[in-house]
Design brief:
- By secondary structure, the chain is mainly beta.
- It is about 15% helix and about 40% strand.
- The chain contains three helices and 16 strands.
- Residues about 1-30 have low confidence and may be disordered.
- Strand 2 and strand 3 form a beta hairpin.
């Protein structure tokens, strides 16, 4: 951003908010509209807000327009799957690069309209294959971003919150959420285990949608990082370790650029490294 210029940028968490991003080269906090601030009515709401604030809070997250991150599945120390994500939250523009077998795909689409195009080796795909891969890209956005950002999405529409008093201990409190719309996600019900001292998520569990009678999947959250933004510090967990097997989910290489080249949302060729190096 050039010094001496002011501009307005739409930012928001599930809503539209017009925020003053910068004037004379100095990004500044903008007052939030009442719609962005969570309404706290119950004990569950209070715990959810403490979780949100531990990750930076709505005052910070509402003003972060771009999120860039990787989602990687590692089994027995070897990466099995990796996807590269770039999300412009105000407009819903999205770039996803992911690999299936020996094929590398690039999806350029909009998460609000679910319209876009998928490319293979820079060539636009068409027909049922293109539609299937576009739907897969949308599911990847839903799943992978939720693994990264669930603690800052606790107050979004369609999510109900419940305080699990019987499950809470002197070490942690437990928040249960239920999603009205769980398309693309592994479950519609999740339990968050919250450290009483830090208010950070230390573990979550969920009942599989395709096998509700099975024991809930449980993952330990660790590898917390933080990023200094112009609006304050945000935090996230880079590692989710499955408790019953040699499986780890990485949500890492996270950045929050203030601007990116527009070509990142139009270039059909891969722009990020897709090597299979181990974590």
């Amino acid at each position: 951003m050039q010094s001496g210029k002011c501009f307005w940028q739409a930012v928001g968490v599930g809503v539209w908010l017009m925020g003053l991003v910068g004037c004379q080269g100095q990004p500044q906090k903008a007052p939030l509209s009442p719609e962005v601030l969570p309404v706290v009515e119950t004990r569950a709401d209070s715990l959810a807000l403490r979780i949100y604030q531990a990750w930076g809070g709505p005052e910070v997250w509402a003003q972060l327009a771009y999120i860039r991150f990787d989602f990687t599945v590692v089994h027995e120390g070897t990466p099995q799957f990796r996807a590269h994500h770039l999300w412009h939250r105000p407009t819903g523009r999205y770039r996803l690069e992911w690999q299936k077998g020996d094929s590398l795909y690039v999806a350029l689409f909009n998460v609000r309209t679910r319209e876009g195009q998928v490319y293979h080796n820079g060539q636009s795909l068409a027909g049922p294959t293109a539609q299937r891969l576009l739907e897969e890209a949308y599911r990847r956005y839903r799943n992978d971003s939720f693994w990264l950002l669930a603690p800052v999405q606790l107050f979004e529409a369609g999510i109900s919150r419940f305080y699990e008093a019987d499950s809470s201990t002197v070490t942690y409190e437990v928040l249960r959420i239920e999603l009205q719309h769980a398309e693309g996600l592994p479950a519609a019900r999740y339990w968050f285990y919250i450290d009483r001292q830090t208010n950070l998520v230390v573990q979550w569990a969920y009942a599989m949608q395709d096998n509700p009678r099975a024991m809930p999947a449980q993952y330990r959250w660790s590898g917390y990082r933080q990023w200094e933004t112009p609006y304050g510090i945000v935090r996230w967990a880079t590692q989710k370790t499955f408790l019953f097997g040699p499986l780890v989910i990485f949500t890492d290489h996270v950045t929050f650029p203030q601007a990116v080249p527009d070509s990142w949302f139009t270039n059909p060729m891969p722009i990020w490294e897709h090597s299979a190096q181990k974590k």
